[in-house]
Structures are given as structure tokens and as C-alpha cells.
Amino acid sequence: MNSQPPAPPAHPAEPVRRTGGRSARVCAAVHRAVTELIAENGAEQVTIPAVAARAGVNPTSVYRRWGDLNGLLADVASTRLAPDDPPPDTGTLRTDLLQWAERTRAAVTTPEARALLRHSIGQLATCPGTTPRMAAREQQLATILTRAEDRGEPTPALTQAVDHLMAPLYFRVILNLGPVDPADTRRLVDDLLHHHTGRCPT
Amino acid sequence: MNSQPPAPPAHPAEPVRRTGGRSARVCAAVHRAVTELIAENGAEQVTIPAVAARAGVNPTSVYRRWGDLNGLLADVASTRLAPDDPPPDTGTLRTDLLQWAERTRAAVTTPEARALLRHSIGQLATCPGTTPRMAAREQQLATILTRAEDRGEPTPALTQAVDHLMAPLYFRVILNLGPVDPADTRRLVDDLLHHHTGRCPT
């Protein structure tokens, strides 16, 4: 998973622009530094000077772009935890759900993702509301179900898919209830289709 | 929101004992102060001096008994979120599960419980492991299922009860996915029994 960090940029004091090659490289280096430090020491030990040192950038650049540590962690969480591709569209509900569940499982079970997820839930204690990447995952699920319904497939409701597929997957990760492996997600998808499409088990 | 703090105790420097009337009163006052302050301002704004002032006790007593703020919050979380009575034992699985689910729902959906739950998950970012009150709730569920099995009732596995009853209930609370009402928990119990006891829906 982790590649070697790139060499520090030649001019760390150069102003950071919002777009463009150098700016994107700084952003990527800072995000990578955050996830590495979280994986090593936990989110509570991360500081902006430590992140800047690891990324090889000037701390001032980090403060200017992200404001404070919570802003930086929120940005990293929304980038790392949000789906980075469109929802699967294979032509059948079962295959779409299996791919969605496996991608979600793989994305949220790395040590960095677990730590970011828990940290962002801790932040919710003072800033209530659904976290954006959850909303994005739920939106993907909604798209998959709507397409299946349009094709005329027996389709569970979104509430059922959230309660019986998304919830158990995240619950195990958030509360550290042991590993979540591909077989678990397959079983959840099969149970969802088996029990919530109005068909009697055969 | 803010009520006047009660008058300070007559002898704030009196040693705090682990048991007994005065010690229990101090403990209850401090716990109440923590939950009130969390409900008003969120867990991140709570400080030991603020808690002590609200509870009308000397901050030294709080530091001596709980060590630091995380120790205090962890104690309050484990007291407030743990089940405070034995699991229901009504003689039928469905009624036991309905009572367990409704008690759990009622316990974890107050604003203080939501905030404590999210805060303790945020702490997990650095201290992995199942939180004790989750383990206690899961243990209650296990007891209910074992009794039903001993009576010869068709009974879902513990994994199924955790995935399809406990997980959706907590997931909605933890991620703030809107209200969770008694009708939701009844539907989850009915679905669990309907789908995971080897009986075809009738």
C-alpha cells in the first residue's frame, strides 16, 4: 500500500497555489504524511509541524491551505474515505452490490481508514450531521438500486440496503469487532437479496 | 440552559472515599455535570474545572479520583451507556428481543448518549478494542439467544443478531442518520426473526 515518500520539494517556501502540478504534489504529500502518521501513532498524536516535516513542506503552507489540524484531518478523511470511482454498473444487481461492497470493505478496513473514520465520528460529537463520504457511499448504493429497479429486477429498498449491508460493514470497522473479509461482504449481499426482494428462499 | 451551580460543599478538601454516601453523591454530581455540559456544548468543550464548578466540588477531588479528562469521560461513558439491568427474560424470543432493542434504543438515542458514544469512538482511534458497554450489550443479546435455543425456539446466530439488529441501530445513532424510533426497532426485530430462523416467510 505505502510507496516511498517522494523527495522533499526543492522550494518549500514557494507559495502554494490551489491548482496545478506543484500544488497537487504538495497536497498529495501532505495527505500521505497525515495517513502515515495516523497509521503509526493514531490521529491524536498528529500535529501540523509533524505533518509538514514528514511531507517536506513549510508548516506555514499547511496552515494557509487547511487552517488548522481539524480542517486538515477533515479534508484527508473526505478524500481517503469517499469513493473514488463511479458505482459499478455491470448489468445485474447482485454483481453491482458485490463490487460495491467489496470496494467499500477494502477502502474502509485499512488501519489509516479505520483511524480516520473513528476520528471523524469523534468530531461529530460537536458537529452533528451525516459525514460527506457516508452520504457519497449511500448515494452510490441508491444509484445501483434504482438501475436494478429500472431493469425490472426484484430490488430491496434503500433503507434495507443501508440497514443490512452498509451498517454491519461499517459497524464492525468502527467498533473494531475483528477483521471484515470478502466472505463477510458476500454473505451480507446474499442475505440482503435473499431476504429483501420479496422472494421466498428456495 | 445554564442553571446556577449549587453551593460548594462545606468541606471541599475532605478526602473522597470510594464508597459510602458522600462519595456516591460526589460521583453522581460529577457524572451529571459531565452529561449536562456535553449536551449543552459537546464533549470537546468539557473541562475538569467546568465539570467541578457545575458539580459544586473541588477540581482536586475530580483529578484525584479520575486522573484526567479522558479517564472521567470514559467512566461516564461506561456508566451511562452500559445496560443497567439484566437482559429481558419473558419466556419468548420475540418479546425478549423487542424489549432488549427498545431499551437499547432508548439508552443510546439521548443527546448525551449520542455525544458520549461518538466521543468514545473517537478515542478508539488511538486505543483500539471493543468498547466495554458494546461488549455488555452483545453479551445480553447472546444470553437472550441461548435461552431461546434452550427452549427449542428457532433462533438466529449471534452474528446475525449483531449484523442485522445491533449494527443498524447503532449505525444510525453514531452517524446521525436521523431519528430512530420504536417502530424502527420493531421492524428490525421482526425482520431478524423472519429472515434468520430458517422459516420461510408466511
UniProtKB/TrEMBL annotation, chains A, B:
Official protein name in the record: TetR family transcriptional regulator
Keyword Nucleotidyltransferase: no
Record's keyword terms, sorted: DNA-binding, Transcription, Transcription regulation
DNA-binding region: 47-66
Domain HTH tetR-type span(s) in chain numbering: 24-84
Highest taxon, organism lineage: Bacteria
PROSITE patterns per UniProt: HTH_TETR_2 (PS50977)
